[in-house]
Structure formats: C-alpha cells, structure tokens
Design a protein that fits this description.
alpha+beta, six-stranded antiparallel β-barrel, about 35% strand
C-alpha cells in the first residue's frame, strides 16, 4: 500500500499539488471577494435547484408504479359499488315490501404479464392467483368490455382464455331490447365479434350497443362490449348474424379486473343438482 502511494505521488504529485493550490485559490477568492462570492452563491443556487428538480422527478417516477397500483385498487373498489355489481333483494317485512340492493360482484385489479402468440387460441397470464382470491371460470374485464375467462390458476398467477379465442362463448344481447344470443370470435379480425341466435323478428339497428346479459353467471349484466356494425341473415337460418365492432382493442390490453361472483357457491350447487 505504501509502495502504491509513493508511486502515485511520484507519478502524479505535481498534478495533485496543482489541484490543491487551485482549490485554495478558489476558496480565498470566494471568501474574501464580495462580488465573486455573490456570483458563486448564485451559481450554486442555480445548479442546486436543477439537481433538486431532477431528484424530485426521479423520485416521482419511481413512485409512479406505486401510485398507479393504488389507483387501480381504488377503481376496483368503486366498480364494486356500481349498480351492475349488485342485485335487487326484496323482502316482505310486517306486511310491507322492502327493496334493497345487495352486492353480488367484487373486482380485483391485475396486470397482464404474458401473452400467447397471436392466433386462434389466444390466452394471457395475469399477476394474480388463488392467494388473491382468483378461481377458475371467473370473468376478466376492462373498462372497455369483456376480455376473457380464467382457465387455470396457480398461487400467484392465472391463465385467461381471451375473448379472442375460438372456444370463447358469451351470453350477450342488445341494450334495452329483450332478445339475446351468443357472442363468439370467428378468428378473422380482432376488431370484431359475431352475435348469433338473435331472432329475425327482433328490432335491430346499426349502432345498437351490445352488452352482457349476466345469464352466464360469469360476468355482471350491462357491461358494454361494442356496437352493431353489420346486419345479415345466416343462410338456412331465421336468425340474425350481427357483426359487433368491439370497444376493446386486443393489442392494447394491459390492465384488467377479475370478477368474483359472491353468489357463485349457491349457483354452483344448483347447477350440480341438475347434472
């Protein structure tokens, strides 16, 4: 160590002495020269402000993910308070009818961390699993509509069958109209799905909003999916074949909400009794 220090002093001793002397001179100029001292303080203040701004910007960026996570959780909580998340429960109490709204659906925010290659069997993985309350056959949505159904669950993650999957099937209907049918993706264009089994006598117009019916016991009723873009009749059938332009873009899906049905256990018990 001593040998290294001696070598550094012998090689760079002159440079070190020069730096020390310049430092001392700079100190004396600032401390014993009022105009130079004022300039130095102003310069220091200017650069200190710049450094503080960059530091604050860096800290804000690092905290952004945490802030987004809090907002997503708050959105999930607020979604659970919407009318579509509840159901009417009417009771006869002392010969009078009492109606109230009971919560049926709760929502869990999640992020997509993996997607399958685009094809006919599109799936994706979310960063929530059974330790967070995720179960198979739960619906997955965004603020733009339905995006899939959970098909497999591990402790911390779950795989979702995308709505853009050849086996995906959803009960859907026209807003404020009685007829409903099945919404499917036929694998041609991710911007569109087909609504089938709507009877020919039904009143259908271009621009009608298509939404979930709630009959599948997977999604709440009233979730807007898209609008009717084209109306045709299936050959050899008396039902409409409606092309639906989706609100949700397949490629832009990053953040989702998992739908948990609080009545699922009761409904599953009824389903098992009929099997």
């Amino acid at each position: 160590m001593d040998g290294l220090l001696q070598w550094l002093l012998s090689r760079g001793g002159s440079f070190i002495v020069l730096v020390l002397l310049e430092g001392i001179a700079f100190y004396l100029i600032i401390n014993f020269n009022s105009p130079q001292q004022a300039i130095a303080l102003e310069t220091w203040s200017l650069y200190a402000n710049r450094v503080n701004k960059r530091y604050d910007a860096t800290v804000s960026y690092l905290r952004l993910k945490e802030q987004i996570s809090r907002l997503e959780q708050e959105n999930a909580r607020l979604m659970g308070q919407l009318p579509l998340a509840g159901y009417s429960d009417s009771l006869m109490i002392e010969n009078r009818q009492d109606s109230l709204r009971r919560q049926r659906f709760v929502f869990l925010s999640a992020n997509i961390i993996n997607k399958s290659p685009q094809g006919l069997r599109n799936t994706f993985v979310i960063d929530r699993g059974y330790i967070h309350g995720v179960e198979k056959n739960q619906g997955v949505i965004t603020d733009q509509g339905v995006v899939g159904v959970v098909i497999d669950v591990t402790a911390q993650n779950a795989r979702v069958m995308s709505a853009w999957h050849q086996d995906f099937l959803l009960s859907a209907g026209l807003r404020s109209k009685d007829p409903f049918g099945s919404l499917v993706w036929e694998g041609f264009d991710s911007r569109y799905m087909q609504l089938t089994a709507i009877p020919e006598f039904a009143s259908v117009e271009i621009g009608d909003t298509v939404e979930t019916t709630g009959f599948s016991n997977v999604f709440p009723s009233g979730i807007a999916i898209g609008t009717v873009d084209n109306i045709s009749i299936r050959p050899g059938d008396n039902n409409y074949d409606l092309r639906v332009r989706l609100f949700q873009n397949l490629y832009s899906v990053r953040h989702v909400y998992v739908v948990r049905d609080l009545k699922k256990e009761d409904l599953d018990r009824l389903q098992q009794s009929t099997d």
